[in-house]
Specification:
This protein is of the alpha/beta class. The strands form 2 sheets. The protein has a 4-stranded mixed sheet with strand order 1-4-3-2, covered by helices on one side. Strand 3 and strand 4 form a beta hairpin.
């Protein structure tokens, strides 16, 4: 078995680097760590270790906005908030709200789905801490 600290990063091909950068910074407060030339930027969500890279390289545009077998990627929220607020924030940042609701055994988990400016599907969810 190979032991890891978990997923370290994800890289998305994007059509407009600055537009996608603004979306993730405005919506999730991601901080720019550094750039790779003029085509890529590395971001980090405050309080986390994961890295989020946006790449606007013309060679990677064939799969732009397509998930290539990955249904979506998700962000777990630190506190319970109305998912309509999350979807409103998505729309203000330039994304598209898709759906929201409750799930789980007692419908205690909250979720929302949206897409970013290039069409990548994102899930936002909150679940109570388990005892």
């Amino acid at each position: 078995m190979i032991q890891t600290f978990g997923l370290s990063h994800i890289q998305l091909s994007v059509s407009d680097l600055e537009r996608s950068l603004r979306f993730y910074q405005e919506l999730l407060g991601m901080k720019e760590l550094f750039r790779f030339g003029s085509n890529a930027v590395m971001l980090q969500t405050p309080g986390s270790n994961e890295i989020f890279t946006l790449n606007c390289n013309s060679e990677g545009t064939d799969g732009l906005g397509k998930m290539g077998g990955i249904a979506h990627f998700g962000f777990r929220l630190r506190e319970a908030i109305e998912m309509t607020e999350v979807l409103d924030a998505v729309a203000r940042a330039g994304g598209t709200p898709v759906d929201h609701g409750k799930r789980g055994k007692d419908k205690e988990e909250l979720y929302a789905f949206a897409t970013d400016p290039d069409g990548y599907e994102i899930e936002f969810f909150w679940a109570p801490a388990s005892n």
